[in-house]
Write a structure and sequence with these properties.
125 residues; alpha/beta; Rossmann fold; five-stranded parallel beta sheet; 5 helices; 45% helix; 18% strand
């Protein structure tokens, strides 16, 4: 699992650094990041990823728009996507599930929670 290529999408440089460090501590070595959904889509046109982690609230193209765009493309229909967000209300989780999100983490969280969710999502492939 740890040899998988991961893309993390978040507009906060601090959050990108924290998540990237957490992913490295878990054992991932092939990690790229993007500032928003548009930036992520550009990177995904150039290379394939095995897992995408995305924030919800971002400028230009938010996480909801980004996931809709991915799920509308046959190439990404089964791509594992984990939403990492401050939005923890029941309606938000329901919306994310309807979008096709494979896992949902509410900030703040521990590296153990991140590892557990990633393991769970990747084991269902």
């Amino acid at each position: 699992m740890l040899d998988k290529k991961v893309l993390f999408v978040d507009d906060s440089p601090t959050m990108r650094r924290i998540i990237m460090n957490s992913l490295k501590k878990i054992g991932f070595t092939n990690i790229l990041d993007a500032e928003n959904g548009l930036d992520a889509l550009e990177k995904m046109e150039k290379q394939d990823f095995d897992l995408v982690l995305t924030d919800w609230n971002m400028p230009e193209m938010n996480g909801e728009q980004f996931v809709k765009k991915l799920r509308s493309n046959e190439k990404y229909e089964t791509l594992p996507i984990l939403m990492i967000t401050t939005r923890g209300m029941k309606d938000d989780v329901i919306t994310a599930v309807k979008l096709g999100i494979n896992g949902y983490i509410v900030k703040p969280f521990t590296p153990e929670i991140l590892k557990g969710k990633i393991t769970d999502v990747m084991s269902k492939l």
